[in-house]
Amino acid sequence: MTAPLLHPPPAPVAVDAVLDAPEDVYALARRGAPYGTVQRYVASATEMSALSDAGRRARKDRPVFVAPWFRGDWAYDTPLLDGAETFLHNARLFDAARALFDGHVVVPQIVYINLNAPMPAVDPGHTDVPAFRGVDRTRYPVWLLVTMLRSGLFEPWRVSMATAVAWYYRGPGGGFKYWPDGPAAAPVHRPCQSNTALVGDNDRMFHCVEAVGEPLYDMPMDLSLDAELHSAGGGWEIRDRGTTRARYGEDEVRISVSWKAQVFPDEAARRVYAEHRDDLTLPAVRDALVGDLRERGATLADAVWSRVEGDDGVAMLSEEPFIAALNDAYRVTLNRG
Predict the structure, then answer these.
(1) Helix, strand, or coil here: 197?
(2) What sections of the chain are H helices per DSSP?
(3) In contact, 206 and 177? CB cutoff 8 Å
(4) Which whole number is the average pLDDT over 265-281?
(5) Around Cβ 70, how many Cβ atoms within 10 Å?
(6) Is 106 strand, coil or helix?
């Protein structure tokens, strides 16, 4: 089966003005603080490697480098932060999602914010976290979902997800690099223009943040996964285990807001999802991945195979040699342009 990432995704749709009052985003951002590090979503460099080659570059004998990149959830099915409905139920994003997939039923699901302090480009390119009927991020780790998509084994169960990335930033740098024609083609560089958005199939389209801020800046090093970004004095502070590590003005921190919506071709397809018809189960996912690895000739210790195959699928979720074998099997090489 051909992996879906090797085919170009649908062409992304640009939105020229997301909000009528873009300044509201800064008040929302302050209200939702503090924000934790984005890397808290993965447990190890091996798991990170499933999402991005940044994990492969990490030294296994050292703690994972923690960049000054922070994230917070604003909505999941319903608003988690007062005011998030301006994104969750945004008609302009709905229209772009319909155009992206030629779909008729759009179900908004997720809104989250990313905040980047001045930093170099640390991510060589990644895809977002997909969802499948019966298997999504509410129940299972993100590395598994990304691996499922890259394998190409579970396409009949995958839910089409439109992702809008909207930017709010007045400083230098902070552009958006993406691969609209597939990973083998040259990437496109989009400048960071406040209150604009790009709506794409980011579960399949590789993308990343370019360097944020001036070339010369004092980036805090040795941050822990416990570091948080706090609103303070009209700007921002990074605090880590009781110590203030850095301070920034409001215009120095790049804000992007991501909106995700499920898109179904019709109401019948939406009901299949909502009523849990034909859902995947974890044992079925495990069996398909194990079968594919064995067919590819993957070499793992007998004890690893035994642990992975010996239960209802839970063991594979933390079996690092098995995860590493999956990463090697389904790795995608990007054209760096």
Answers:
(1) strand
(2) 24-32, 45-51, 54-57, 85-88, 91-101, 142-151, 267-274, 282-295, 302-309, 320-329
(3) no
(4) 96
(5) 25
(6) strand
- C-alpha 316/C-alpha 47 separation (Å) is 12
Task: Say which DSSP state 214 is in.
Answer: -
Q: What is the dihedral of CA 321, 326, 329, 330, to 10 degrees?
A: -150
In tens, the pLDDT along 144-167 reads 999 999 999 999 999 999 999 999
pLDDT tens, 280-305? 999 999 999 999 999 999 999 999 99
- Residue 126's identity, in one-letter code, is H
CB 236 within 8 A of CB 105: no
Cβ burial, residue 17 (10 Å; 0-12/13-18/19+): exposed
Is 205:183 a contact under the CB 8 Å cutoff? Answer: no
Determine how β-strand 228-232 pairs with β-strand 207-209. unpaired
Tokens of 41: 């979503």
> What SS3 class is residue 289?
helix
Domains, in order of start, for the chain? 4-277 (2.60.120)
pTM of structure: 0.91
Residue 84 sits at φ, ψ, to 5 deg, of: -65, -15
> pLDDT per residue over 47-94, tens digit each?
767 776 655 555 555 567 899 999 999 999 999 999 999 999 999 999
C-alpha span between 314 and 86 (Å, rounded): 38
Helices 282-295, 320-329: axis angle to 10 degrees equals: 60
